[in-house]
Specification:
By secondary structure, the protein is an alpha/beta fold. It has helices at 31-40, 60-71, 83-95, 99-107, 116-124, 138-145, 165-173, 193-203, 215-227, 231-240, 249-253, 270-285, 319-330, 338-344, 353-367; strands at 2-4, 22-25, 44-47, 51-57, 77-80, 110-113, 154-159, 177-182, 185-188, 209-212, 243-246, 262-263, 287-291, 297-301, 307-310, 313-316, 336-337, 372-375, 379-382. The strands form 5 sheets. Strands 1-13-14-15-16 form a 5-stranded antiparallel sheet. A 5-stranded parallel sheet has the order 3-2-10-11-12, with helices on both faces. Strand 11 (243-246), helix 11 (249-253) and strand 12 (262-263) form a beta-alpha-beta unit. Mean pLDDT is 88; it is low at 1-11.
């Protein structure tokens, strides 16, 4: 559990907790609401839409052809990935007079849903999911199916704004006959200039945080950074000085490829993301107290993890274990994959997972052997008090 150093008992609650912080916003949808939430709390907002204002581009011709292909043979399993995608599919099917046969067809299948929004879209049309992961991650849907014999099973995968061709290929390797239904594609913003400006602001570390409400926005930002030759600068900034704030785990997962640490709230909601920033940003300027398992207390001042206080005693860390600690405290108690920790290690460190193991070992020596937990086949996490 992590807590801020408490203010004096007589101090009133700060009505503008983000005063003095500069925050980038990449959203295109519901952006007015998000900007209002941030500005009301005192933040200076830099808006650069990563995606089109009308991001959900439906190709009626291809979607109808895919729908008719779905109806051409029995479906054994449906993987529903997004609420907006399922709603758009059903709405189009209704316009074509195909909704009733489609619902009857899919109603005989085993239905797996990625998260509550897709569950809601299904139930609205009278369909019931058999299972959905708590994580809202499509990878966990695939993990749920891994090891099952899918030979001859006809599986329909509803694609969201990004291609799920690799997921379909993985299911085919398990013997499934997979049909992907592309409901919509997410298009990048028509004017790239605001995104190029945002890239420069991040790379030059002139922002305190950037918010992301969709995984494709992460890809769009990294594409823009790559086209201007500043991708490495952007990644370094996110790893050290700029918070990548995501609305939920699905969006955060898009950063894993780049080794960027993220924060996201327990509930995938806009207000919850802003509320988390109210805590995270001031903590970087003040001090962050983390209650470790076993009753020990770790105190960090600002973003510098090279010197910390452990139960009031100063502990100095060399660059590699300090980098690991920085990644672990970004989400105390959450697992950080080895590849992400490897990306955080200082330049010149041997580029292998053994380097991560050595850095973790040194961190354990400094903070105690139980301070960092190994999660088999996944990575490491800071052992915080429940």
């Amino acid at each position: 559990m992590s807590t801020l150093i408490p203010p004096p008992a007589s101090a009133p609650a700060d009505p503008r907790p983000l005063e003095g912080f500069r925050i980038g916003v990449t959203a295109a949808r519901k952006v007015e609401e998000q900007i209002a939430l941030l500005e009301r709390r005192g933040a200076l907002v830099e808006w650069a839409p990563a995606l089109s204002m009308d991001p959900n581009q439906v190709d009626d011709t291809s979607l109808r052809a895919a729908t008719e292909e779905v109806l051409a043979a029995p479906v054994d399993m449906l993987l529903a990935t997004t609420g907006i995608g399922m709603r758009a599919w059903f709405d189009r099917a209704e316009e074509w007079g195909l909704l009733a046969p489609l619902l009857e067809h899919l109603g005989r299948a085993e239905i797996l849903a990625r998260g509550p929004k897709s569950v809601g879209a299904l139930r609205r049309r009278g369909l019931r999911e058999l299972w959905a992961p708590e994580s809202e991650s499509f990878e966990d849907v695939l993990e749920h199916l891994r090891g099952r014999d899918l030979t001859g099973r006809r599986i329909v995968v509803q694609e969201h704004g990004q291609s799920l061709s690799m997921a379909a290929h993985a299911l085919r390797r398990q013997g499934a006959d997979v049909l992907t239904v592309t409901v919509y594609r997410v298009e990048t913003a028509a004017d790239p200039e605001p995104m190029f400006r945002l890239v420069d602001l991040i790379a030059d570390r002139e922002l305190d945080a950037v918010t992301f409400t969709a995984a494709p926005a992460v890809a769009a930002l990294m594409d823009a950074a790559g086209s201007t030759g500043r991708r490495d600068d952007v990644i370094s900034a996110f790893q050290a000085d700029v918070i990548a704030a995501c609305v939920g785990p699905v969006t955060a997962a898009a950063f894993e490829l780049w080794g960027v640490p993220t924060i996201f709230p327990d509930r995938s909601r806009l207000a919850a993301m802003v509320k988390q920033l109210e805590v995270e940003l001031p903590s970087r300027r003040a001090g962050l107290v983390i209650e470790l398992a076993g009753g020990r207390q770790l105190l960090l001042h600002g973003e510098d993890t090279s010197t910390v206080l452990l139960d009031g005693i100063e502990v100095r860390l060399s660059p590699a274990p300090a980098a690991v600690l920085s990644a672990l405290v970004a989400n105390p108690g959450n697992v950080v994959p080895r590849r992400d920790l490897l990306a955080m290690l200082p330049s010149g460190t041997a580029g292998s997972e053994h380097a991560v193991e050595m850095a973790v070992a040194r961190l354990r020596t400094a903070l105690g052997t139980k301070a960092v937990q190994t999660v088999v086949k996944r990575g490491y996490r800071l052992a915080v008090a429940p």
